[in-house]
C-alpha cells in the first residue's frame, strides 16, 4: 500500500498521516479491495479549478476531483485532489468541524474509486451514508 499526501498551493499539512493511511486502507478492505498507489493532493480553489477546466471541461469550483488509475479488479489506485479552501467553506456552511469535513471529502474520493456514484438522488443518499460510515470508522482506528 502506498498512500501519499501532497500539498499544492494550499499550505495545508495533514496531521497524523499514518492514522489516515490506515483509515483509508480499512475503508477499502471493508469493501473487498486493496489499496495500490493512492495519492491525495491538497490544493487551493484556483489550483483545483484549473484542473477541473483543463481535464474535465467543467468551468466550476469544486471540493474534490478523483482520477481513477485502477488497473486490477480488486485493487484501487488513483489521484484525489481536494480543495482545502472549499473544505473550510463547506465546514462553516454545514456547521461541521474542519476535521470532520476533511474526512468526509477524503472518504468521498476513495468511495468513488470503490465504485460509489453521486449523480442521482439515490446514489447521493448512499454516498452520504458511506461517508458517515467512513467517518465513524476513523474514530475506531
From TrEMBL:
UniProt: Zn(2+) binding residues: 108, 112, 118
Essential cofactor(s): Zn(2+)
Cofactor notes: Binds 1 zinc ion.
Its EC number(s): 3.1.-.-
Nuclease listed as a keyword: yes
Compartment list: Cytoplasm
Homology family: Belongs to the endoribonuclease YbeY family.
Biological function: Single strand-specific metallo-endoribonuclease involved in late-stage 70S ribosome quality control and in maturation of the 3' terminus of the 16S rRNA.
Protein name: Endoribonuclease YbeY
